[in-house]
From TrEMBL:
Superkingdom in the source lineage: Eukaryota
Biological source species: Kwoniella heveanensis BCC8398
The protein's name in its UniProt record: Nucleic acid-binding protein
PROSITE patterns xrefs: SSB
Protein keywords: DNA-binding
Amino acid sequence: MYRALQIPSQVRAVRAAASFTTSSRRLDVSKVILVGRVGSDPILRKTSSGKPYYTYNVATAVGQPTEGEDGKSQQPPTSWHTIFSFNEFQHPQIQRLGKGSSVYVEADLEMRPCTSPEDGTRLHDRAFLRHHKLSVIRGVKPLLEADTDEGPDVE
């Protein structure tokens, strides 16, 4: 009574490819989560259009300390990450961070090409971490605030 509809394999392949290529880009995610220590006080900068933003460094180490051949403890290597924050609503919180503060950072990852300043040849890709969320685990006052009693406490 009902005939089975047979679709040629070539048509099925085209449909599968089309469904893959038309996927929504808003579903793509490239995010980094860092838990580490701030390496220096955050620095306020301005874009070429005059918009303020902060940069700060976060140090992380992966793994447990190991024992070397000489019996001494060897710390895992430290990785340094530069974070850029264009979110003006979080600038007051970033201002209160000091070197040594323990933080949890969520950042969007974007790979940008890095070129040689001398001849413009491409060297490698550099990770650009755009600050998305910041939580302070243990705060340390920035150097300028630590010298005076006027700054707010960060704990």
